[in-house]
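# nightly structure sweep
# worker-07 picked up a monomer target from the shared queue
# config: single-sequence mode, recycle default, output format = structure tokens
# input follows
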Amino acid sequence: MRKLFKIQGITTALVFSAIMFALVACEGAAGPAGPAGSAGAAGADGAAGVQGPAGPAGPAGPAGPAGESAHHDEEEEHSDAVLSVSPAESGGTSSMYGAGFGPGETVSITAGGRVIGGATANDDGAFAADATVTLSDGMYTATAIGSDGSEAIAPLLIASK
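# output follows
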């Protein structure tokens, strides 16, 4: 049995030596480089980069139009008129308040193409009036127009409960 292991060991050593010799003997000088392969497919877009710094300020813009003069003549005296109206149901009553009209100025209030109320401004140019509104549900612009040319607008909501 010992002889068998001894022969197997020698045989294995000879085979291993022959393989090593073959590998070393077969290794020669490197050959020339082969031709380049074809280009691969394009890769996916990368992640967005970090935002850069702000650029320089642009040139100054052109000058704006001149503002209104501090001088007011008689026609402009009542140009700061204001109007406030309360919401109402169709067929209900809306309370309307105005100021900035001329003393004793007659004011007509319209909405939806209809006259919905009227009043006369007191000595301070203010008025209060209640009007029955027969407009359908919706949002309207109420306009108060004075007999001396004063004008003011306000939103008017007509809605069912």
